[in-house]
Design a protein that fits this description.
Elements (H helix, E strand, L loop, with lengths): L1 H14 L8 H7 L2 E3 L4 H15 L10 E16 L5 E16 L4 E14 L4 H34 L1
Parallel strand pairs: 1-2
Antiparallel strand pairs: 2-3, 3-4
Length: 158
């Protein structure tokens, strides 16, 4: 009975046009994207994460596309003590990206947002470490979202 159900599910999925997102050709296409350098620590982390996720080498030579990402980071105190001391921050990282071909024509674009948070500790060093870790997580999240957007875009074009 289980084998029959598995066979029926396979036939239904084949009939609906289901295709795996990450086909071999798609990975090769994503690797042809050059990620432009970005300023600041968040930009550095985001660029490195994108290079890893796209399986690019970070070198512009031989690439078909250029990815330009603009970042905007905001921080907001969300937890206050009775004396108005902030004990928790929410950081929002907004990224707008444009994928162009090497001639400069826009291929696709989009926006992604990530929210991360950290607590203020008694030690300034601990707070700084928590803030940096929060920023790193947000940049890695944005990188995964952009990679998924680009993969979906290229998959639709196939």
């Amino acid at each position: 009975m289980k084998k029959l159900a598995a066979l029926a599910l396979t036939l239904v999925l084949a009939a609906c046009g289901f295709h795996p997102m990450y086909a071999p050709g798609l990975a090769l296409q994503l690797a042809t994207i050059y990620v432009e350098p970005m300023a600041d620590r968040d930009g550095y982390e985001l660029r490195n994460s994108l290079i890893d996720l796209l399986r690019s080498d970070g070198v512009q030579t031989g690439k078909r596309y250029r990815l330009i990402v603009r970042l905007n980071q905001t921080s907001r105190g969300v937890a206050l003590q009775n004396d108005a001391t902030i004990t928790r921050y929410n950081d929002t990282l907004d990224a707008s990206y444009v994928l162009t071909d090497m001639a400069g024509d826009t291929v696709t674009s989009g926006n992604e947002t990530s929210l991360s948070a950290y607590n203020v500790a008694d030690s300034p060093y601990s707070t700084l470490a928590a803030q940096r870790d929060s920023s790193k997580r947000a940049a890695q999240d944005i990188a995964q979202r952009i990679q998924t957007d680009l993969a979906a875009f290229f998959r639709q074009r196939q």
